[in-house]
């Protein structure tokens, strides 16, 4: 959404304060259909933010209402690091890296 900032749900708790240091600033969270946004809003309220809401129906509803959206990585704090390429998007190097991570996990090296 124009003017918004994207942050992965997995990084919400540890990074939101960098993005929104004012606990009283209004915050609206959204996702594709609005479901996970409710959980994110509850998390922010639990963290102490005062004015948090979730966009009903998510980004799909926003688009259906004729509102504008941006595409690409606009508004992203930094490129996502929690996305793992799958299937044909994975290179041989990606697969080897993943196997190394799995082995280290099994040995308690991570």
Note down, in words, how this protein is organized.
- This protein is mainly alpha-helical and 110 residues long.
- The protein has 2 domains: 1-76, Oxidized Rhodanese, domain 1 (3-Layer(aba) Sandwich); 80-110.
- The protein contains 4 helices and 2 strands.
- The protein has helices spanning 12-19, 35-47, 58-64, 92-106, and strands at 27-29, 52-54.
- The longest helix is centred in the last third of the chain and has 15 residues, at 92-106.
- It starts with 11 loop residues before the first helix and ends with a helix.
Summary, kept brief:
The protein has 110 residues and is mainly alpha-helical.
Describe the structure using short key phrases.
single chain, 110 residues, mainly alpha, Oxidized Rhodanese, domain 1, 2 domains, two-stranded parallel ribbon, 4 helices, 39% helix, 5% strand
- Which CATH architecture of the largest domain would you pick? 3-Layer(aba) Sandwich
CATH uppermost class of the largest domain: Alpha Beta
What is the global morphology? Answer: extended
% residues in beta strands: 5-15%
Largest sheet: 2 strands, parallel
Q: Report the count of strand segments.
A: 2
Mean pLDDT: 84
Order of strands in the sheet with the most strands? 1-2
Counting helices, strands and paired strands, the structural category is mainly alpha
Number of helical elements: 4
Q: According to CATH, what is the topology of the largest domain?
A: Oxidized Rhodanese, domain 1
What share of the residues lie within helices? Answer: 25-40%
Poorly predicted ranges: none
